Amino acid sequence: MVEEKKVLQEVTMEKITSLCKRKGFIFPACEIYGGLANAYSYGPYGAELKKNIKELWWKKFVQNRVDMVGMDGPILLHPKLWEASGHTTGFNDAMVDCKKCKKRFRADHLVEELTGKDLEGQLDEMTNILRDEKLKCPECGQSDWTKARNINMMFKTDMNGITESLYLRPETAGAIFVDFKNIVDSMRVKVPFGIAQIGKAFRNEIVARNFIFRLREFEQMEIEYFIDPEIKWEPLFDNWLELQEEFIMELGAKKENLRRFEHAKEKLSHYSRKTVDIEYKFPFGFSELFGLAHRGDFDLTQHTKFSNEKLEYFDAQNNRRYTPHVIEPTFGLDRTILVALLAAYTEEKVKNDTRVVMKFPKKIAPVKVAILPLSKKKPLSDSAKEIFENLSSEFVCEYDQTQSIGKRYRRQDEIGTPYCVTIDFDSLEDKKVTVRDRDTMEQERIQIAKLKDYLREKLNS
Ligand code: ATP
Known about the structure:
The protein is an alpha+beta fold. It has three domains: 13-77 and 169-342, BirA Bifunctional Protein, domain 2; 92-152, Herpes Virus-1 (2-Layer Sandwich); 367-459, Anticodon-binding domain (Rossmann fold, 3-Layer(aba) Sandwich). It is built from 15 helices and 24 strands. The strands form seven sheets. The protein has a seven-stranded mixed beta sheet with strand order 4-10-11-17-14-13-12, with helices on both faces. α12 (380-392) links the parallel β20 (369-373) and β21. The relative contact order is 0.12. The mean pLDDT is 94. Adenosine-5'-triphosphate (ATP) binds next to β11, β14, β17 and α11.
């Protein structure tokens, strides 16, 4: 029988952070050593969730499209790449220190919160405003600020102690541009085509915060989509925006929690025709989830200049050689995971109890099926283990034989397992098991012989 249920209050960051730690999704990294500022590890369920999201992205944007190829470049790239892209000189954030408590802040963020003004790059203006308005330090409440100054956000490292200016890549895109020629030469791709990559990026963020929203080590899923400079690019740009929104909605986000923020023309980099951020309504407010930018031929031209290697495309049909323009859809993987967690989190009143259930779309749920024998004893446990072995060759399954069945259902609800399979004493006689649906809590008796087909159909529906 279905229990009566009623949806309770809104999700908060505290609830998600706590569930993630309690239930093995995401832990503060190096906790036994006191943690490392806003660094996190993905635990067993978090790692499954992340893997499922990456696979879905790859399938949608690479596997299912004839105009896309994938690649996987290194994190350590030639220092000249970052000179060419402008990161060495221009990839800066404005920071300011409180002289009293020595805490460091993003100067532009403090000024924006105070005045609503975006003073990007105007360091003297920021210093004056912070001092004139006597802004109180959010940490200690005093008002004694250093000058605002720029710091480069790239993490510096070295190779065998001898190579100077080697950086951990601050974005994955760079690796794509430097392999443009290899891909054009080896893959017989035809413009328009895209190159996709998933991988780690590192940024020395002044303030890392909001759980996995702003990290110093994170993952990106990026695409460089090369187009003929002479075509009308606007429809393609709009289509990418729609695809980016479609992707996050496939992971459970609601349309009303998304909005587009178009960068003002005068704020755009000189090479960009248009830049739009896709923002999500996080519990701390609307903030950037994904980005989309028309970058013209800036990247290929710069790398040609710095490497002396021509990065062009030859259109054999029209006997034309040109430098393609590029549209860049970029997706932050950790922010995507945060949205999937926030969108899934549901609290329901069931009879006199509160049920927390992660209503992930089935395709991204970390565990697909839980196998729950009513008794630990043979022959029931043998039968349950046989079912586990059979199902786990196809789906990620979990075997759980401890505590009451009600508690086991709740545990699976909290990690978002779509189906629980209960093996009871009747199962030994009638060769049937009970399958419980996570969302409706309805239960159905299914023949063991047909169980795998039944679950496959349900999980793919
Ligand atoms: P923000 O304005 O929030 O700092 P950004 O405009 O610098 O972001 P991009 O350089 O466009 O971000 O990076 C592409 C994507 O990478 C972003 O849309 C976001 O999803 C993700 N991203 C960027 N910085 C971080 C970070 N510090 N932690 C987690 N994800 C990030």
